[in-house]
From TrEMBL:
The chain crosses the membrane at residues 28-46, 103-125, 137-158, 198-220. The keyword Membrane applies. Keywords: Glycoprotein, Membrane, Transmembrane, Transmembrane helix. It is a multi-pass membrane protein. It is found in: Membrane. Its main location: membrane. The keyword Transmembrane applies. Residues 18-224 form the MARVEL domain. Belongs to the synaptophysin/synaptobrevin family. Pfam families: MARVEL (PF01284). This is MARVEL domain-containing protein. It comes from Chiloscyllium punctatum (Brownbanded bambooshark).
Amino acid sequence: MEATSFQKFPAFKLDISPLKEPLGFIKVLQWVFAIFAFATCGGYAGTSVASVKCQDGKKDLISVHFSYPFRLNQISYKALTCKNDSVHETLNLLGDFSSPPEFFVTIGVFTFLYCTAALVIYVGYQSLYQQNKYLPIADFVVTALFAFLWLVSSSAWAQGLSDVKNATKPTAIIHPISACQGKTVVCTPGAVPPMGRLNASVIFGFMNFILWSGNSWFAFKETAWHKASNPQDIAEQGTNVER
């Protein structure tokens, strides 16, 4: 019985023609944009810089390094108190913003894995996809689900990125330093850390939402729900099977 079941499963047959159709072509775009989304977010590292100049001329350059997943409250830095050259105070950045980016990256990775599996079915098991009514339905449901998840994760990460920017800007580093509260100490913020890569990740996230939302229609067209209301599609499917 096991041998019979194995024989019923179609063999892999490469056919790239589905990639010329919207359903397959958009899936390739989703695969690429998913990589861009989680790579631009997950691999980020930045540095925020500020300086403290005491009344006696002593200077202290402060460099604070931070990176994904942005658990900023675990990042500490030291600053002169200007009371003594050897006396420093230890401070921490504020906030733990790890949940939005981790959720965003997780969706990106799962999207990449699903697109890989879907493309294998499209180009290698197209006959199985056409003949099995449950595969197109499952594909449509998962496509709609990913569209929703990309909207939620991208919106959450956009807000999270705004919080990260506020917590890591040089003025936010200077603010809690006790020496900077005095009028005789000069505290100078450095350049704002470049975050173009993180901005791009948010853009890629919303582009993924658009792609998955649009592809939901093409996935729905392959389901029995749509074909049941279109007899012409059923006739065309029967003709393709006979060929």
